Amino acid sequence: MTSVPHHHRGAFGDDAFGRFAEKAARFFGTPRYIVGQTILVALWILVNVLSFTKAIRFDGRPFILLNLIFSTQAAYAAPLILLAQTRQADRDKTMAEKVDKRHTAIEQGVKTETDKLLDLLQSNTTLTQQDKELTEQVAQLTREIHTLLTKQSAG
Length: 155
Description:
Layout: H1 16-28, H2 31-50, H3 64-154
Helix pairs in contact: 1-3
C-alpha cells in the first residue's frame, strides 16, 4: 500500500499549525495524558480541601479556577481535534482516490486480457469448426475414392 506523505498543505500555508494540532489531538487521547490529568486534579482538590491554612488554598470550593482551566482547555482542545480530524479526512480522501485509480487501472487491464482471451477462444472455436468441416470433407472424398476404386476393380 502506498504511504501518504507527511507534508500536508492546508488552510494554514505550510500547515505547521495543522501538524501541531495533530500532535496535540494524539496526545489528548493517550492514557498518559488522562492519568496525568487525573493525578493533577486529585492533587488540586486535595491541596484545596485538606489545607489547614488559607495561604495554601488557592481555589476553594466549588473550585472555580479549576473549572476555568478545564473550560479553557476544552475551548482550545476541541478546535485542535477538529482540525486534526479534517486533515486526516483529507489524507484518507487522497488515499482513497489513489486506490480507486489503481483499482480502475487493474480493472481495465483485466478487461483487456479477458477480451484477448475471448478473442483467442473464438479463434480456437472457429479453427475447431474448420477442422471438423475439413475432416468431414476428407472423409467424404475418401469414401468417394473408395467407391470409385471398388467400381473400377469390380468392372
